[in-house]
Amino acid sequence: MRRKNNAIYIDLENIPSGLDLKPLFEELTLQHNDSPEEENVFVIKMACGNSSSIKKLEKQLAEYNFTIRDTPSITTNYKNRADLIISLEALETIIVNTPVIDRYVFITSDSDFTVIMEALRKYGKEVYLVTKEMVSDKPIFNNCCDEILIIESFMNKPKADEPKSSSHSKAKIEEKPAEIIHTKKMDKQVETLMKRVVDSFDPDSWQLVSYVGVKFHQMDKSRMIERSSYHSLGNLLSKLEKENYIERKINEKGHPEIRRLPN
């Protein structure tokens, strides 16, 4: 089994205090490999922040054996050097090259980290970003990493509530339309992305669905499709097929293909 070395860095002051490291490590350990033969090993684990931000995750960080760096504020507006310290630590792994790091994971919402992320990719390294959903579609993030995970997917689950009163139920009903609007917006975004992918191909040629998926993922690094009502590439393609935007077939090798239908 091939060993895949990972380095994970947490910017403690730019993440929610409710982050649950267990599901995040499970996600990174079990998935996102090029082949089933790869084994993810976290050889570097580092977290930076001031003393108050360390306290919020201190127990979890200790359980996962993180190296913790206290970065007190150095200016009156609370600016510290966590981004610089983490960036230099990551860059040093390239210089030392022992152990060789295959994938770097940055947990932050600070765009200052895009500098080191871009530098690591120049060295052929795989770079992941775990960030807040509200900033996950920023071009600066999407253009300097290989995949974006949404930090809200790895938050502590709230405790079960007491039976709801009728007034509370009414409030829930009032909240639901906002959720529906958000989902519809995401549906529209993934539909637009897929149409752009399909339109980029030669209209007279068939494309393997697997290849279409790769091209789509390059544009959907934050995996919006999983949070949309489609949930999967197949469901999205079925929608476009019903709209007569594409047609599908199985080729002679038994692999699914699609092509754009003329207007």
TrEMBL record:
Q: Name one GO molecular function term.
A: RNA nuclease activity
Q: Which residues form the NYN domain?
A: 7-150
Quote the protein name from its UniProt record. NYN domain-containing protein
